């Protein structure tokens, strides 16, 4: 059986305590890349440091996961601020993680936006352009991890940035290729097998059913597992087993 390599990324460091970091670490044997909250939508200096150390132990690729500085809403609500204010905030967040990573001797590999900011950058080509321009100027060696076929992918290409096309195993899509808003019934999957079926559909490049009754095809370099979901650990362990049986290796 031919072995295929697949990258699984997971948002981490979104708690506040050592216990939260220990819970994140339970997922680390089953992923290959972690996106670490930078203290704005969630996390703090301690969780950034501990998550980097834990990830280093599992030889994971580490990246920055900046979002709207709105912990009360977990960065899942769009803020009415200027595009330049968003860019400035993202750069401050990334630099905070860069500084801690440098102190620990950990090299960062990528940047992935969080929550509402991730979605807003896909809805606004101007915002995507400004963000990718800022990354190209300040962190040109970091890859950008973002929605497959979206505005960030186009902007990253314009500025010569490496782009990793992301797919989601636990979220429904719309015919536009955008993620279905969390407010829509059925947009967030709660059944591990439903998530695994979506992963295999994407990997086999079979048209994927959308929440609005259509089908789309996705080309992905990385698949996201949301670490804060109630089914995360069950999904991670079952997915690891089923992917192995199907000839895929998480790496």
Automatic annotation (TrEMBL):
Pfam families: LamB_YcsF. SUPFAM superfamilies: Glycoside hydrolase/deacetylase (SSF88713). Gene3D superfamilies: Glycoside hydrolase/deacetylase. InterPro entries: Glyco_hydro/deAcase_b/a-brl, LamB/YcsF/PxpA-like. GO terms for biological process: carbohydrate metabolic process. PANTHER family: 5-OXOPROLINASE SUBUNIT A, UNCHARACTERIZED PROTEIN YBGL-RELATED. This is Lactam utilization protein LamB. It comes from Paraglaciecola hydrolytica.
């Amino acid at each position: 059986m031919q072995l295929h390599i697949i990258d699984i990324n997971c948002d981490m460091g979104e708690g506040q305590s050592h216990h939260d970091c220990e819970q994140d670490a339970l997922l680390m044997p089953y992923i290959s890349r972690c996106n670490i909250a930078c203290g704005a939508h969630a996390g703090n200096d301690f969780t950034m440091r501990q998550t980097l150390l834990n990830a280093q132990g599992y030889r994971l690729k580490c990246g920055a996961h900046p979002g709207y500085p709105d912990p009360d809403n977990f960065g899942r609500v769009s803020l009415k601020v200027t595009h330049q204010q968003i860019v400035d905030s993202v750069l401050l967040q990334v630099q905070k993680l860069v500084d801690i990573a440098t102190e620990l001797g950990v090299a960062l590999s990528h940047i992935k936006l969080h929550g509402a900011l991730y979605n807003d950058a896909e809805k606004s080509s101007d915002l995507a352009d400004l963000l990718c321009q800022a990354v190209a100027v300040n962190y040109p060696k970091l890859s950008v991890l973002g929605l497959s076929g979206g505005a960030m992918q186009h902007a990253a290409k314009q500025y010569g940035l490496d782009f990793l096309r992301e797919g989601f195993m636990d979220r429904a899509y719309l015919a536009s290729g955008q993620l279905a808003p969390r407010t829509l019934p059925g947009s967030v999957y709660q059944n591990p097998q439903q998530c695994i079926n979506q992963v295999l559909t994407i990997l086999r490049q079979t048209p994927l059913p959308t929440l609005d009754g259509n089908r789309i095809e996705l080309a992905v370099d990385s698949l996201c597992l949301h670490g804060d979901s109630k089914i995360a650990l069950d999904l991670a362990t079952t997915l690891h087993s089923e992917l192995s049986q199907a000839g895929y290796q998480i790496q």
